[in-house]
Amino acid sequence: MAFTAPKQLLRPQIHSSAAPRRGKHPSSDRSMAPKPSIFGACKKSLSAFSASAVSFAAAAGGGFILLASSSPPPIDGGGGGGWYRGGGGDGGGFWSNLFSPLVALAKEEGGPGREWDPHGLPANIVVQLNKLSGLKRYKISDILLFDRRRSTTVAGTEDSFFEMVSLRNGGVYTKAQLQSELENLAASGMFEKVDLQGKTKPDGTLALTVSFAESTWQSADAFRCINVGLMPQTKQMEMDPDMTEREKLEYFRSQEREYRRRIERSRSCLLPVTVRREVMQMLRERGKVSARLLQRIRDRVQKWYQDEGYACAQVVNFGNLNTKEVVCEVVEGDITQLDIQFLDKLGNLCEGNTHLAVIRRELPRQLRPGHVFNIEAGKQALRNINSLALFSNIEVNPRPDEKNEGGIIVEIKLREMDQKTAEVSTEWSIVPGRDGRPTLASVQPGGTVSFEHRNINGLNRSIVGSVTSSNLLNPQDDLSFKLEYVHPYLDGVTNPRNRTFRTSCFNSRKLSPVFTGGPGVDEVPPVWIDRVGFKANITESFTRQSKFTYGLVMEEITTRDETTSICTHGARVLPSGGLSMDGPPTTLSGTGIDRMAFAQANITRDNTKFLNGATVGERDVFQLDQGLGIGSNFPFFNRHQLTLTRFIPLKNVEEGIGKSPPPVLVLHGHYGGCVGDLPSYDAFTLGGPYSVRGYNMGELGACRNIIELATELRIPVKNTHVYLFAEHGNDLGSSKDVKGNPTEFFRRAGHGSSYGAGVKLGMVRAEYAMDHNSGTGAVFFRFGERF
């Protein structure tokens, strides 16, 4: 004997959603979610396991759903292999609320708040259904369930069988509807006997009592779970009531053989051994198999699927009842097709510019045909596609495959960004005029002009350019620019090797922290470093967390003073007020202009992630610059750096929206070294917000070798976090090996420590740091993260 149930209507969401209540249809409208989002899902039952009408359901918590069938159940329970589909009539409640046309009609015509007719009978008398008037609409004020075996009466919602009853308190129903409900319950096969009777109330309403004795079958000592998705439904022959006993026996045997063949053709389900052992324990403890036991088994099986992200999986049938083995049939939600669609700004289907191969290579294997749909794979697809930065809206929408019973079609709907964009951002620096007041001529507009042409030829290639100046009226003073071309999929879109080629030309100007005074030193004339050049590299991504970059850099470096004149040496203020111009040389050539070419490589392993808003994991970066002996004075050098950072959660917390983040301990170490020719502007500097906090940029020294150690304890507070930190930096005695010894010339210590506390305010870090060298403290405001 077997029981069959279509799947509940599911709407898996990345973001929060409300489960439909019992007795109510879930909305057929798609819920909107923050973009990118994954929504939609099994809006209909994933497959029809019956030749007759299917009743859809919206079972709260996920329940069995019985398929309607005109075939009567075998009287003896079906022997060992018969496959019985309970139900009957026009559909009815089984494991959950079934919304057949009849029940829907009851809801429409006599739902809560609708007009109804008083029963017109004396109060507090028991009335059988056949005694009710076929012309009246009765209001049901209470529903009770009476278990004949247990001799107990409970409120409907407190009994697990209540999910099989489609009637609801406050509903208005006709006599025909109540009789149909009784027929559905009787035909479900879950009851040896079931009856429905009313009790009149003084207010003219009826209280209904469902009196039942649940069906039981012989004990079982084996449990099997099979995946019946994508299997064609075998039509069951109708049993002729005029059959002889021999013909009936042959009929049941044929049904048994049919079901055995079905089991043989099915696939093993994903249910792990641990859950199967739990089910076996249930079977051993309860002895005989009962309807309530099947409910418990169903709930446990479906809970595992839901917990593991298989949002479209559903238990649809129990077979082999009255044998030593219970067979649980599951439609797991096998993906049969992947459908990628492009939408215009109005949400209409259109032809996209992006090649489909670009999108397909970003999809996890678990989201491709032949696999079972998993909502976590859908989330991963969202993240991967979003990382392309080509789409303004992304939807991953699984829906039933109407051509393949039990199959899932994964729809990916994409809205492309504009290919060409341009932006202008401006800022003004107001400088004093001759009389100390700003005039129109002294208002200097600065800003950045940027443009981007993305997704060239639909292959995610792009050209990005920007021009920046602090004075757009006279941009030649400090004009900087960058023009970059990005060419992903260097080995072809269909090649699994993931390499991206980048080439750029640039011009930049930055203040050098090498030429900075130490504590107590008067203001040091600044030295600006102008770089103009060309860079080309290839980045190969081994995994989402690991990548390797290698390439060539050719540049010209010019050192300038604050008047933009070429500067060959650093300077400091003498006690007399004059400038000492015999400081460290600013370039390797000694002329203030260097030209060089060097190879550059970088390997990064980043396993960090966000846990309820807190960064946890580990990040390792190794960078190598190798001089090629090409350029001014034929520079040949090897500069290398290693950075290790660990974000260690100090408490196990539950992951989810609205959950509190854990306290995190951050451990950080950075080592850098250089062998060979080293110009001053490329020396390692100590001190600053990203080196040793509490000091200015380069305030501790400039050196060939460097080591930095830091620790930070982050404690979550409401929607932010406070933190304590301690840091140390040391030049390892290598400052003297830098040409001109800038550390000694500018009277810097070459090492230093700091400690303090801070709070994160949005993107700003407000910190109080103690300078361990001088014993003084100060408040700093910084943007971004330290690590």
From TrEMBL:
Topological relation to the membrane, as annotated: Multi-pass membrane protein
Keywords, ordered alphabetically: Chloroplast, Membrane, Plastid, Plastid outer membrane, Protein transport, Transit peptide, Transmembrane, Transmembrane beta strand, Transport
Main location: plastid
Biological process (GO), any one: intracellular protein transport
Entry protein name: (wild Malaysian banana) hypothetical protein
Annotated region (Disordered), positions in chain: 1-35
Record-annotated membrane-spanning stretches: none
Localisation per UniProt entry: Plastid, Chloroplast outer membrane
Residue span(s) of domain Toc75-like POTRA: 122-214, 335-416
Organism: Musa acuminata subsp. malaccensis
Domain Bacterial surface antigen (D15), first and last residues per copy: 455-786
A cellular component term, taken from the record's GO annotations: chloroplast outer membrane
Domain Toc75-like second POTRA: 223-334
GO molecular function, one term: protein-transporting ATPase activity
Protein family according to the UniProt entry: Belongs to the TOC75 family.
Pfam family, one: POTRA2_Toc75
UniProt cross-references to InterPro entries, sorted A to Z: Bac_surfAg_D15 (IPR000184), D15-like (IPR039910), IAP75 (IPR005689), POTRA1_3_Toc75 (IPR057354), POTRA2_Toc75 (IPR057355)
